[in-house]
Design goal:
The chain is mainly alpha-helical. The chain has helices spanning 8-27, 36-48, 53-60, 64-76, 98-120, 124-137, and strands at 51-52, 80-84, 92-96. It is built from 6 helices and 3 strands; from the N terminus they run ααβααββαα. It has a 3-stranded antiparallel beta sheet.
Length: 143
Amino acid sequence: MESDGDGPDVLAGALLTLYGKIRRTTLVGKVDDVTASQSAALGRLVRDGATTTAELARAEGVRPQSMGATVQALEDLGLVTRTQDPTDGRRTIVAATDAGRTARDESHRARTRLLAERLATLDPDDRATVARSLRILEPLVEP
């Protein structure tokens, strides 16, 4: 039986709060000039491949104008390139550069290392619970 603290609304709020704390924790000590939104866009380009600014904005849930500014900043840093779509000259394709892929990989490794160090301080049974929780939560998010 569900207690008040186990209802979907309460759990959703707690999960979002924890997500924010984890995100802020992993951003501490950041050494590059890439913002969180730029990092998210770059990560999507690295994971999913080249796309248009509009498609990237849709995938990230932001306005195309906002994504345009994000892409411009990433281009200024040399982390993405924009090229004309060979099949539709009206469209521009955004792609991660080698430097962008390297920066994203290094950032991911640093954040993973930080969380791994913190997870190492947990009791082994608690780490097993975290692992089980991740398997349970995975189907709740996009593939």
